[in-house]
Amino acid sequence: MTVRKGKSLAVSIQEHMAIDVCPGPIRPIRQISAYFPRLSPTSSVSEPLSPTRSAVVPAATSPGTLSPVAGAAEERVAGAKGLLLPGGAWGGGASLSAMNSMDTSVEIDSGDSDDSTSLGTLEFDLLYERATSSLHCTMLRAKGLKPMDFNGLADPYVKLHLLPGACKANKLKTKIVRNTLNPVWNETLTYCGITEEDMYRKTLRVSVCDEDRLTHNEFIGESRVALRRVKPDLNKHFKLCLEHPPPLPSPTAMSSALRGISLYLREWENDQQRSLEERGRLLLCLQFLPPASGGDAEQQPKERVKGGLSVGVKRCAHLAAMDVNGFSDPYVKTYLKPDLQKKSKHKTSVIKKTLNPEFNEEFFYEISFSDLTSKTLEVTVWDYDLGKSNDFIGGVSLGCHSQGDSLQHWVDCLKNKGTKVERWHTLTNQLPGSTLQD
Hints:
Blueprint: H1 13-19, H2 68-81, H3 97-109, E1 121-129, E2 134-143, E3 156-163, H4 167-170, E4 172-173, E5 184-192, H5 196-201, E6 203-210, E7 218-226, E8 236-241, H6 256-275, E9 278-289, H7 295-299, E10 308-317, E11 330-337, E12 346-347, E13 358-366, H8 369-372, E14 376-383, E15 391-399, H9 404-415, E16 421-428
């Protein structure tokens, strides 16, 4: 389009739509840090650039130069390229330090990220004792931890979790070492009730955290060890680098078909967990005492002269938390069913605020060996609540119709008369073929 002298400027609708309506370059939304820019050390600009300053400076018109309409169009083109027109604006070879001063400072500050920083190393030992079903975790030391406090140090401690499992129930924690990046703990933490099946399918999560008295504790790094790597009764030494926790899978990254399959599998897995949810471990000791005769009858208590079943409730481990404080007030009840007269109920004392109670209580059922083969021992764990109904935590049934470890424990008790047989049992949220009433 050309403009002649003496004629008014006329702009067609096509030119109007092509020039005036064009939005120009899209600028990023300013953050609050942009109002307080820190200039790069290499920048030659002495004044901070205001965020309200126009990105494009109008070009000065002179005879023989561009028309206002064409000048405006070229200004937008130049602005899209990051260049300003002549007349106090940017040229093709002009310096971009004034426009990019804030961007340069942001890039410099964002270079110090967690991904490019070493989190440190951790040394520890693992020992699984098959005879006692216990896992001993000895936390030795850590080196080169990431600084978390203003003084360039940290107050580190170690947390242990068994996965899969409830974090509150199986969390163990070391002492806190103050003001150091190379802490030494030399502390042994023990998990009780760990079966060989647990050693095959569970993973130990070892995380290092920084303790803050005024705010929330900060996470430094973690390592995960599959317990199948630990051989029974053999101490194994580990020296691992701390890592960031693995990212959770995002459903948006999958296609719609895969997302539907994953949702179906997740619902199925949740149904399976709800149908048989693990709620902790229980250590039971069973002993069948045959009828006493002769001199043995005088040494036995009167209620044990005729013989019967002795049930020892030793302890529980990793119980599910039922109270708001993250703990439970557990106690144990035992029944020998079928119980038509309802006289077989025994109950331990209540231990307050714990998920790993020790009872060490023993109950006796006077019964003959022939009648015992048709009975089922039902052991349940409850959470005591004052003023309302108690909460069921979990239970286990032992008898000739049981399965797995429960059946094996019952058979070993009947075969080895007069011998105490101890075994850990997994508590489930539902007992097969029973209605739970406290």
